[in-house]
Structures are given as structure tokens and as C-alpha cells.
Amino acid sequence: MPISLPDRLLLGPGPSNVHPDVLGAMASPLVGHMDPAFHAVLEEVQSRLRGLFGTTNPMTLPLSTTGSGGMEACFANTVEPGDRVVVGIQGVFGERMAEVARRYGADVTRVESEPGTVLDPEEMAAAIARVEPVVVAFVHAETSTGVCQPVEAIARAGRERGALVVLDCVTSLSGLPLTLDAWGIDAAYSGTQKCLACPPGLSPASFGPRVLERITARTRPVPVWYLDLSLLDGYFGSGDRIYHHTAPVSAVLGLAEALRRVDAEGLEARERRHREASRRLLEGLAPLGFEPLVDAPHRLPMLNAVRLPEAVQPVEAELRNRLLERHGIEVGAGLGKLAGQIWRIGLMGENARPEPVDRLLAALREELA
Ligand SMILES: Cc1ncc(COP(=O)(O)O)c(C=O)c1O
Fold it and tell me: What is the Å distance from ligand 1's center to 240 Cα?
């Protein structure tokens, strides 16, 4: 019996729906991970990722893990026990960064913002000046609250004090322009299942020369063999593609097709499409009593955090279930402090279009009538 799953419109925080061409690429006949034909595809993937991240870093690669593994790679490689790390926390994923850094032995200083607001760059700069950290880390697009964090001032403050700057781009890559090199970001990671519109399973990531220098200067080896960049360099670096672990060939083929689609559309047009879809959604939700959580200048277009009307809050889980069961539409619940108060409606990649928005609005109108 073949596996049979229902058809879903995925308007949660990810995964998002995938174009059939991406699924088709993943179903290509398998080749080996040491086959030159596969290496040519990998080369293309790495080059397209550099374009999307806005970097010339040679060490730009699809890590064989999800977004959380990308986060793990950043801290595993840069932190040694006792190192001071400043983490900006606007929600659940900033919180997760602090926890991951702590597990590698970091002495973590937290700078927090109220849910739905961005980090204050001056507060971050003051903490950086006081603590003199080895690493400064924060989230560009905080999926738990829908805020888009301005990057430049915080990155500059970190760089001026000699810290490595780590940026979570899981939800922003290929939905918003990224310029890692111009911003002064040393390490960044993302995931395939959001705006790239690819199944989950890979973490596109980029590491600059200062991270590689830091690894050479470590007093002890990177504690996670699988994510040690000095070892991954043998396969994903510029050399001979020496075996480290078996690259997930089919997943990389899917990513290659997804990246071709992004580049064919162009990042500017793609960003515009995400913004237009978000505007259409918020305009349609307003008469139903759903209000955006985040002020307009810092609102993410691909992840719309909306406050639920008071009457809906006690029955929000039930309403989400009805959307899924009766209409085949998935939306995301609130996370952490915002659980029960907000929904997170993702319009990512293929779904950042008028039709998915209109389908959700029609279903909601019917359920709330
Ligand atoms: C901002 C952010 N960081 C990290 C992650 C973790 O990624 P994954 O669930 O792919 O491990 C997510 C996932 O939603 C995210 O939105």
C-alpha cells in the first residue's frame, strides 16, 4: 500500500508547500555522493546560496541537518567552555540560541525584548561593551513573534569589540534580502522548509574567514564531530570533496531545483510577492477582528503574527483543527508567552500568492459566521 496523505495548504510557520518540480528533482534516480555529476549540482547549490546570503564566503554549504542543526553548528564551532556570549532574545528561537550556547559551556548574557518588538540596538551595544563577548548572536526573522530585526547596528557593535557575529536566517532566507558580508556577519544559518519552499532536512549556512580562524585557534577540538567545520571543509570546501559523511543526495537535488526557481524569479520580485501577500492577508483579517501583533516597520511578510479576537482565544485550538480537518489548511499556534493569544500565519515561498490567502480568508469567514 503506498503511503497516502491528505492534501494540505501549509500556512503555518513551516514547512510550506513545495513546487512539484522540487519534488520531481528529489525523485531523480539516485547517484552517489562522490559522483562528479552530483558534485556539479552541489557546486551550483553552494554558488546560488552565496548569492542569496549576500556573501563570498567559500564555506557556504547545505548542512545535513535542519535549522536547529545550523544553530548548533554555529555555537559548536565558535564557543569553548567559559567563553562569554551575548544573545539577543525576541522570542522562542533567540531563547533556543541562548540554551544551545549554554550547552557548549558559554557564559551567556541575555538581552531581551518584549514579545512582538525588536531588540534595542543600544541595549545590545551596551551589553557587548560591558561583557566583551567572543560571540554575539541574534535572530533576523523571529518566527515565534513575527518580528524582523534590523541587523546592521548590532553587527557593527559586535565587530567593533572583536566578537564573532552569528545570525539566524531560518525564516528570512530567500524572502528578504540578506547581505551577510556588508552587514559584517561571520556565521549564518537557515532552513529549507520556509521561503525556499523545499522539504525540511537541510540547513543552508555560511561561515566567514574569522570563524575558520577561530576554529584553528581553539584550545580543544570542536565537541561535535559531525558539525566540525574543519572536517566538513574536506567535502564542502574548495578541494577534492573528500568523504566526511554521506551527503543527503536527494535532498540536495531538491534544494538545487528550489534555488533555480528562486533565481529565475529574482529576489526583488520574490520579496515583493511576500509583502503583497502579507498586505492582502492583513487587510482581509482586519474585519474579522484579527490584528497584527507587530508594528508595521518591523513586521515580517512571510510570518504574520496576528492577535486573536477575544471571543476566539478560548476556542482557538478548536478553530485551527476545523481549518485543518474541514478545509485542509494548516496555520500555526502561538508559541511560548504568546500561546493562546496569537496565530502565526505563514505565507512562505510558493504560498506567498493571492490564492492561498483568499482560500484561508474564505474558510475563516465560513467558520466564524
Ligand atoms: C527562526 C528559527 N530558528 C530556528 C528554527 C529551527 O529550525 P528547524 O525546526 O528546521 O530545526 C526555526 C524553525 O522554525 C526558526 O523559525
Answer: 32
Mutate to test the pocket of ligand 1, among 143, 302, 348 (most ligand atoms within 8 A of CB): 143
pLDDT, one tens digit for every residue, the chain (369 residues): 999 999 999 999 999 999 999 999 999 999 999 999 999 999 999 999 999 999 999 999 999 999 999 999 999 999 999 999 999 999 999 999 999 999 999 999 999 999 999 999 999 999 999 999 999 999 999 999 999 999 999 999 999 999 999 999 999 999 999 999 999 999 999 999 999 999 999 999 999 999 999 999 999 999 999 999 999 999 999 788 999 999 999 999 999 999 999 999 999 999 999 999 999 999 999 999 999 999 999 999 999 999 999 999 999 999 999 999 999 999 999 998 899 999 999 999 999 999 999 999 999 999 999
The bridge status of strand 147-148 relative to strand 187-189 is unpaired
Q: How many domains does the chain have?
A: 2
Is residue 91 in contact with ligand 1, taking CB distance under 6 Å?
no
Which CATH number do you get for residue 320?
3.90.1150.10
Say if 121 falls within a structural domain.
Answer: yes
Q: Is residue 200 within 6 Å of ligand 1 at its C-beta?
A: yes
d(CA 15, CA 318): 21
- Tell me: do 40 and 174 sit in the same domain: yes
* Atom of ligand 1 lying closest to residue 144 CA: 16
In this structure, are 240 and 314 located in the same domain?
no
Q: How far, in Å, CA of 110 to CA of 140, rounded?
A: 16
* Distance from residue 194's CA to the centre of ligand 1 (Å): 9
Residues 6+ away with beta carbon under 8 Å from 272: none
Domain extent, residue 42, equals 20-262
User: Does one domain contain both 307 and 193?
Assistant: no
Residue 148, strand partner residues? 141
Using the atom order of ligand 1, give the atom closest to the CA of residue 140: 1
Q: Are residues 175 and 34 in the same domain?
A: yes
Nearest to 19 by CA among 353, 266, 254, 253: 254
> Is there an atom of ligand 1 within 6 Å of 67 CB?
yes
